[in-house]
Amino acid sequence: MTVPFLRVAPLALACAAAMAPVGAAEIEAGLRAEAQRSGSVDTLIVLSARAPKSLLRNDGNYLERRRNLVDTLRATADVTQAGLRNWLDAQGIAYRPYWIVNMIQASLTPRQIEALAAREEVAKIESNRSYALKQPVENGPLPDPSSATQSDGSAPAAPQAIEWGVNKVRAPLVWAAGFTGQDVVIAGQDTGIRWTHAAIKAKYRGWNGVSADHNYNWHDSIHVAGSSCGADSPVPCDDNGHGSHTIGTMVGDDGGSNQVGVAPGAKWIGCRNMNAGDGTPARYNECAQWLLAPTDLNGANPNPDLAPDVISNSWGCPASEGCTAGTEIKEAIENLVAGGIVFVAAAGNGGSACGGIIDPPAIYDASFTIGSMTSGDAMSGFSLRGPGLGSSSVKPDVIAPGSSVRSISNGSDTSYMTISGTSMATPHVAGVVALLMSANPALKGDPARVAQILRDTAVPINDSQVCGGIPATTYPNPVQGMGRVDAWNAFQLATDMIFVDSFED
Hints:
The chain is α/β, with parallel strands linked by helices.
């Protein structure tokens, strides 16, 4: 059932928009030259108007606040984009509007760029660049799951029943207490998902045990061909394998000897935001918008009540993908968190030098940023260290198992593979979040409280590296944050809060 949206008075929004600063729009450096060379260039037209914060509710439960947020964002875009859309229509320019960030994507000629830059409602015109395989792939391409050896030359890892990373974060202790993530929805936005894999099919929210309904449970932000999934895939599909592997670490369990997931009782939904590993700001923002208010397969009837409780994000948006100012996707992520959704993000891979965390979304204060550790309780050599560029808080926030992590592969519905990266550490933490919300449902819709519990209960590892002038024995620090995430410690604190909250009430 679709939940009706609250209506926000268009006049109030128009008045708020009228108060936004106007003037000549900022055009990204090099964009004019790029358009001149190619005749046209894919752009993001960012409007000045923002949703008036004064109209956002701070009463009611998190679902009521989320509905109001979505309604306000949508109404703001509808009112303030109207004139611009009319101009684009008159020019015969195809475009795609967004509301999670007040912007429009369109391919523009040099002359059209100049015309739009002169419009008072336009704040910036940015590139929506597309480069191949810029997600944080771990030390090279994903290994072929059908090969006899892994990419490092070792034999494929054998099943461990409960995988080492799941044990390392002490998830089985929480399972034994009766909480496996039940009644929690977890999401992945990545290269896609092999939804029919034996370890995750039963956990897909769109599967009832007999038939599949992908409405509100899957979205594809890739609208061009160019990979095995094609364009606008109506069913969950993975053209790379990276996204499937991360979902497996969140919820995977085949009922036998492959317990690869931290929260096997949770349900999952997903969005493909990369085309064979190729992302753009528009694709990232489109998935963020869908996750804040999932739609049917036609992109209609958005329902914020069906948003996930936590999102795992094992991707990055470097300058080569269009995040040149570092803010192209920031507002979308802040709106997800304002909607009560925990946003867990990979710190990124590239080595152990200090100051390596420089790409969105890991650098954002709204992101809960994850570094990687080994099974031997050491920092992974590839895990980027902070301080995070532009972050007011220490990054990473915590670390989790990310070296040689075994999870599902895209090779078949029963295949597995072992790879490494902060991409693998991040879904461990998203799974722990699901366990906490399962144990204490009052944590749903409260990302700040969840993040604080994870920080307060993390376990530091022994590491002597100093970054940012912060001693290795001071926590948080820019190497490991507060230390290894610990599901059992966090569970105990989260369940203690149930008693405290009930006593205070």
